[in-house]
């Protein structure tokens, strides 16, 4: 066999392996209801849930509970359908977490609690004009 054929086969095999490995990391955007149903069906794939932190009528964040050692925390999140769910994150609270406009949690349900492996935040832009009242 020619060296160019062997080289081509190796390149094709590497490309196939890259595609297969990235497809395994892909996850979908769902609501908490869908995520809970998936967990009941035994599907433990990582999923994205988009929502906001639960706030009181005065705009104060409700349900934010850091652990005593500050290495993990739980918080209440409201998804796009209005369902409230407790989320556990086993990392320290990200900077500006309390100021985020929107939160995306990536993880799965375990025993009735959504366990987040990663948190993505949409923080308020410093370039937005402030409205003067």
Give an overview of the whole structure.
Helix content is 24%, strand content 32%. The protein has 2 helices and 7 strands, in the order αβαββββββ. It is elongated, with a radius of gyration of 20 Å. Strand 4 and strand 5 form a beta hairpin. The longest helix is centred in the first third of the chain and has 23 residues, at 3-25. The model has no long low-confidence stretch (mean pLDDT 83). The relative contact order is 0.15. Strands 2-4-5-7-6 form a 5-stranded mixed beta barrel. It starts with a helix and ends in an 11-residue tail after the last strand. The chain has 133 residues and is an alpha+beta fold.
Brief write-up:
The protein is α+β, with helices and mostly antiparallel strands and 133 residues long.
Helix content: 10-25%
The order of strands across the largest sheet is 2-4-5-7-6
Total strand count, please? 7
Mean pLDDT: 83
How many helix segments?
Answer: 2
Summarize the helices and strands and which ones pair or pack.
Blueprint: H1 3-25, E1 29-30, H2 32-40, E2 47-53, E3 65-66, E4 73-79, E5 84-89, E6 102-110, E7 113-122
Parallel strand pairs: 1-2, 5-7
Antiparallel strand pairs: 2-4, 2-6, 3-4, 4-5, 6-7
